[in-house]
Amino acid sequence: MTRKTYVPEILAPRYALRVDDFGPDHVLHVRCEACARVVLIDAGELRRSFDACQRIVVLAERLRCARCAAPTPLSWSVYRRVPTPES
Fold it and tell me: What is the top-level taxon of the source organism (predicted)?
């Protein structure tokens, strides 16, 4: 059995990154600045929920934390799933 780990990855400049730039192994790592909740949104979910040409910076401004619903901004970054063998 393999365990999944995540490594940061730069796909494009932050201002230009779009949903369509995500590959099947990419996830959007979103963190609430108010309560520190972290959510990983995979590429498939992004494509189902948003238009392919939607910019991630605009999308992140509209997202709100499901736990605390604070009006504070969410920080985000892109990660890639990397399977690693278990020891």
Answer: Bacteria
